[in-house]
Each structure stands twice: as C-alpha cells, then as structure tokens.
Amino acid sequence: MMTTSPLTDLDIAHKIQLTPITEIAQKLGLDPDDIEMYGKYKAKIPLHNIDQDKIKQSNLILVSAISPTPAGEGKTTVSIGLSEAMNRIGKKTTVVLREPSLGPVFGLKGGATGGGYSQVLPMEDINLHFTGDFSAIEKAHNLLAALVDNNIQSKTNNLGIDPRTVSLKRVMDVNDRSLRNIVIGLGGTGSGIPRESGFDITAASEIMAIMCLAENLEDLKGRLGNIFIGYTFDKKAIYARDLNAEGAMATLLKDALKPNLVQTIEGNPAIIHLGPFANIAQGTNSVIATRMGMSLSDYTVTEAGFGFDLGAEKFLDIKCQSAGLTPRVVVMTATIRALKYHGGVPLSSLTIPNVEALEKGLPNLEKHLENARLFNITPVIAINKFYSDSDEEIQVIIDMAKKLNIKVAVSDGWAKGGEGALDLAKKVVEAIEEGRSNFTPLYDWEDSVMNKIETIAKKIYGADRVEYAAKARRDLKTISNLELDHLPVCIAKTQKSLSDNPLLIGRPTGFTLTVREIEIAAGAGFLIPITGDMMRMPGLPAHPASENINIDLEGNISGLI
Q1: Which of 83, 115, 242, 284 is buried most, with the most CB atoms less than 10 Å from its CB?
Q2: pTM for the full model?
Q3: What separation in angstroms does the CA of 309 have from each of 73, 84, 147, 266, 315?
C-alpha cells in the first residue's frame, strides 16, 4: 500500500461518483453510439477510430521505473496522476494502461489500477473479470492446446506430430505452482497420449503477446497461424495454421481485440487493454490501445512493467519498432524506499529515514537513467512520494538530478491526485517542447540472435559476458533452421535486479548472464531467452491477498488492493 492512512484504495474508490462512460467518450470526441457498452461505466472502442494522421501529431510519454521492491514502485499511480495533472494544465491527455492479471490480484502484489487519488475506475471490475479479455485469451490458447492433442490422438486426421517436441502448455489466470509441470493424457487409450506438459499463467501466453502486437483482425489471424507447435516425426515444422486453428481462435478473440474505455478518479479518459508481464513477456499494453489513445488525444501517457531494464527496453526495442511508435520522453519513477533497499536496507526498515543508505542506492537510478539515454530519449525523474519520505531524503535525489542535468519532480498523486503531479506535468511538457529526444532502437533486428542478447545484457543490464546452457545452444540451432534469426529478443529475467540474480541489488557489475533456453514465439514475432530461475507460472505466498478479499450479502467487496 502507498500509505498508512486508514483509507484504503477501495475506500477512496467508493467515495467517487462515477461519470457515465458515454460522457467520457464524448471528452475524446467519440460518438456515444459508436462505443460498445459493458454496463454503465465500461465500454469497448471499435478499431476504426484509430487515425494514423492524428497519431503522428500526438505525443507519447512512457512511464518506467528503477528496479522495484516486491510491492512495486507505483508506475501506474504515477501514470494516472500525471495524466490527471496534464489535463489540469490544459493538455488533452489519455492514460493507456495494462489490464490486471488475477494472479497478482489474489497473490502478493495486488491489483493494477493505481492507488489513492490516482486510480482508474471502476476499480473492482477492472481488477477482476473486467470485460472478459483474459478469459477470451485463455479459451483461445486452450483451444489450440486441445487441437494439438486431438491431432496427436487422431487416427484419421493426424499430422504425425512428435509429442516430445510440443512445448505448448495450457494457461489459466491464477498463481498455481502445482500445475507448472504435470502429466496429461492418462486414463487409457481413449484419453490421449500421455506426455509431460503443464500450465502457464495467462499473462505469459503467446496469444497475450500476439494480441498486444496485432494491428487488426487480419494481422491477428496471421500471427495466430504462425504459432510454432513442434515437429513431426520426420522433422517437419508444424504451426497452428497446419491445424486450421487460427480462424476459430480469432473468432474467440474478436471482441477482446478492442481496447477498453474507463475513467480516472477525476473523470478523465483511461484506456486499458491486455497485460503481459514484463519479466516473462513484453510487459506493455496493446499496440491498438496505444494507437487509440494517440488518435484521440494530444498526449498519451503509458507505462511498461517493472524496471526500465525489462518493460521499457521491450517497449522500445519490440513494440515501438513493430508499430512505428516514437516516445517523446521517459518518466523514470523512483521511490525513496526502493533506493534505500538498493542501498542495503531490509524490507522491514524501508520507512525509517536513512540518507546514507539512500545515497548507496542511487547507482541503480543512475543506471536506469543511462539506459534511457542509450535510446536517445530524454528522461524526467518522478519521485513517487510516500508518507515516510523525509525532506532530506527527497533532496538527495533532487541534488543528484541537478548534477546530471535531468529534470526532476516530486509526484504526490496518491495523496493529492492530479494536483500532486502538477510540477511533474510541467516538467514533462517542457522536456517534450525542448525536442531533445530522437528515439533510436538499441539493436537492429537483423543482427544475430546472440548479438541481440549480448547487446541488451552488456549495455542495459551491465553484464560482462553471456553464457549459454546446452539447451539454449540447441535452441539457437532450431531458430536458425526455422529461419527466425531476424526476430527481436524478449529476455525473461528477474525484476528484482539488473542482473539475472535477484540477490544482486543496486548496480551490479562483473557478472555473467546465463541463458538457460530460448523459447520461440513465432506468432508474437519474438524470441524469449530465459535466464535465471524464471518461471511462467508463479506461486502463491504463504498469506495470499485472497485471504483478505470478501463480499457481503449486499454485494459490497472488501479487502481488494
């Protein structure tokens, strides 16, 4: 939580009188009859409202962060507060965010609708089933998995798929470590071919990644058809299109492809659409949602998951290159507590003032700022204010920013909403108007796979070298045989450190990044080098957030964070 105030995010959300979504649509210049209503306060926006000419004139603002503590550093809260403040100073702005996964909602981290007086509403709906996008992705993914196993089992319609080469798992939107590795097909000859498999969380589904990069329904169908399944016994590559799966899958996804319109706590427009995690996928909302925000607003604020080394790098090297987007500024979210954590303070003592530890943690912020400049994008530091921050601690970051000639502002959006982010909004507008950013990708997609991995590892993470396990080297040969070397890389790595070792806090140096294996996401259009102990199905903590969530007989929800 963002404060010790007796008021929770849910309490604050319940105090707000929501504006009918038709009025929010009108603020964007949309005809209320041209949105698809999901109740009174949620709607989907048809794709024909995307306007490429308007996109070229719009200003894209990317909100990122330093390496986070387990609870996160409030990028979503900063993004919402900044958009509120931008609207307050007369800049027509829309915030575009990711949808929450039920895994964190019921697990440890909580929901993803911001906090305090910088929230998107209706908070309960967005954090729970929302408009059914995640459910549609689950159904489409599991349909493909069922079709694969059905083809393996069939005697009359069999492609000869070697089940040992099939890596596709099923998905569900909960944290459940017991399902990571299972055996399917038990129960006799009529129940399938027994083989090892498992479940990933829905946010890790390749279909989630595909939906986030698809440009329209036609592009979606093509990408779905390109999902790599495995090999036949005679070594022929099999894709989802060989199973004639893409049509049915796209039919399940036709409504989920449209972005969702909701509102901020101050009645400004918010677009929320899809949500892959940044430690195991690309960590950004959809290309369609970002383009929609830019089509309907002069300024669009969006965020990318976890620290700059994960979400922002993938946003810039994958999403922006794929969609032709050009951010004008990066807002680097920093918190006093995270900097003290990177200075060696245990989680239990982060609220105690400690300037010495804060100064020791500054190199983590400095590295993320350097990384932003590697892409030739101007960074602006947002100090996300917590109740425990001392003026002396805040001044340390301000002094550092002055030495680096970087704009900095305190963002108090949790406590004050848009009013608390006015200085940040002004600094962001100044940075955009100065026009110093000239976005340049970190690498060329045509580089070799190893060069792409090593460029990120050495330049963004600060590694000395990269090692490849035997499985990863075999995967490199498979990628080459499939002629997929040209795809960008989406590295799966811990969010807790710039390295692949979560225990190396601050700004680690002299380390080796180890790539265990490389997954192929040919439909999404990228490769996934997996480092460290990264897993695509999280587990629940000893005391999951679900223990505190309840609903009374009148339907009032409590305990949701």
Answers
A1: 83
A2: 0.95
A3: 15, 27, 37, 32, 10
